[in-house]
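Hello,

Our lab assistant flagged a job as stuck in the queue for most of the afternoon. It eventually completed. Since we weren't sure the result was trustworthy after the delay, we are filing this so someone can double-check. Below is the sequence as submitted and the structure that was eventually returned. Let us know if re-running is recommended.
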Amino acid sequence: MEVKVRYAPSPTGLQHIGGVRTALFNYFFAKSQGGKFILRVEDTDQERYSDESLQDLYDTLEWLNIKWDEGPVVGGPNGPYIQSERFDLYQKYAKQLVEDGHAYYCYCSSERLDEVRKQQQESKSSYQGYDRHCRNLSPEEIAEKEKEGIKPVIRLKVPTEGKTTFHDVLMGDITRKNKDISPDPILLKSDGFPTYHLANVIDDHLMGITHIMRAQEWIPSGPLHILLYKAFGWEPPVYCHLPMVMGKDGKKLSKRHGSTSVRDFREKGYLPEALMNYVTLVGWSFDSEREFFSQEELEKLFDITKISKSPGIFDYKKLDWFNGQYIRMMSDEDLGKALLPYLQKAGYVDGEFIGDKKAKFEELVVAVKPRLKVLSDIVGLAYFLFTTPEVAPAEMFVAKKMDLKSSYEALVKDYEIIKSNLDNGKSFEDAEADITQMAKDIGVKVNGVFTPLRVALTSTTVSLPMSDTYNLLGKEESYRRIEAALKMLEKEVQ
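-- returned structure --
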C-alpha cells in the first residue's frame, strides 16, 4: 500500500507554527515511506477566506522547500484539490447517505433551533444540541415542508446507543459513547455548502489518503468521522493525532508568546533550514542527542513512532540559537547576499556594493557573522557604519559604578592610548590591550573604560567589538567621532 498523507489548511489566516509543523510531519513521513504528500485547500468558510491567506500558504511551503505531489497548481489524478471546486461531489454523497438511511433532511428554522437551545439551558438538561426533531418525519410531512419552499439541511443520523472506537498510532484506542457525540450534525447546509466533517471525509477517501496526521484538538471529531466512514461503507485511514505546540508557560502557543506566523519569522530573518529543523523537533526526536538535520536527512529518518505523546514546547530562544548556528554555516558570500535586502530596506544602501564599498561590506559580513541570531540583526549592528549618528546623550557614556566625570576622564585616556598606538604604527588591538591595562591600573572595571569609547564610536551601548568597529569606520572617522564626544562631555562636566 502506497502511503498518502495530506495537509489541508483553511486559507483564513497566515500560516502559523502549529500548522507548519503538521505539514512538516506529514511531508517527512510520506517521504520516509516512499509515499505522496497531498496539498488540499479547505476553503468552504467563504466568510473568512482570503486570497492573501491562500498565497501565504503557497509562499510558505515554497520558502520551506516543501513540494506537494498532488494539489493546487501541480494538479493530480484526484482533483480538484480546492474544496470550493468540489461541491457537486459533496451534494452527491450527502444525498446518497439520505437514500441509504444514514442521513435525513432537516427543515428546522434558525429561530426554532435557538428556542430549543434556550429551553435546554433553562432546564439545565444534560442533552445539549439539536433535538432530532426532523429525524423521523413521515413522507407526508416532508412533502408538506417541500411545498412551503423550505430549503433543508442534511443531517447525519448518529446512533443514540452504543459506542464508537477508533485507533490512534500514538494514543491507542479512543472510545466515545454515541450519545455523547454531537447529535445529528449538519453535513450539507441549506445553501449547498458542505460542513467540514462531510467534505473532509469524502475528500480523504476519494484522494486515497492512508494516514491522517493532525493536531490533537481534532480528537473529539474522530468518532464522528468514523461514523461517516461506516455510513459510506469505506475503510477509515490510520489516525495519528499530533501533540499540541505550547509556549514555555505550558499554554497553547499564541501571539502572547511572540510571533507565530511563518511570515513574521521569515521577515525577521530566520532561515528556512533552521526553522524547518527546529520546528520538526517540537514534539519529535530521532534520539536523545542529535539536533541538526538537513531536509534530505529528515526525509529518510523521520519515524512516526518517535512522535511524542506530550505537548511540544516552542522555545524562541532555542530557535534563535538554532538560527544563529545555521547562519554560521553559511558562506560569507551567501550571507552577504542574504543580509543586503535588510540594509536596503533600512535605507542604508541603494542597490549593491561595488568597489571599495564592496570590500568594506565583505569586512562587515565577517564581523557580524558570529553575532547574528537573525538576519535583521544586521540593521542594528551596522547602524553606526551607514549613518553618521549624532553624539549620544551624556548619560549613555556612564557605565555602572561610574559617574559622568570619571567616564569623561576614561574617554580622554582611551583616546590618548589609541592615538599613541596608531600614530606609531601599532594596531587598534594593541590599543585595546593598553586600555585594558589602564583600567586595572586605575582600579576600574573594563566596562567602565570601554563603554565611553563604544558610545563615542557607535552612539549605542551594544555593538560589534571595538576593533571591528574601528576597522570598519577607519582612523579618520573614528578620531572625528571620539573628538565630538569629548567636546560634548567636556561641556557637561564643567
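-- support follow-up --
The delay was a queue issue, not a problem with the job. The result is valid. The longest helix spans residues 404-422. The chain is about 45% helix and 10% strand.
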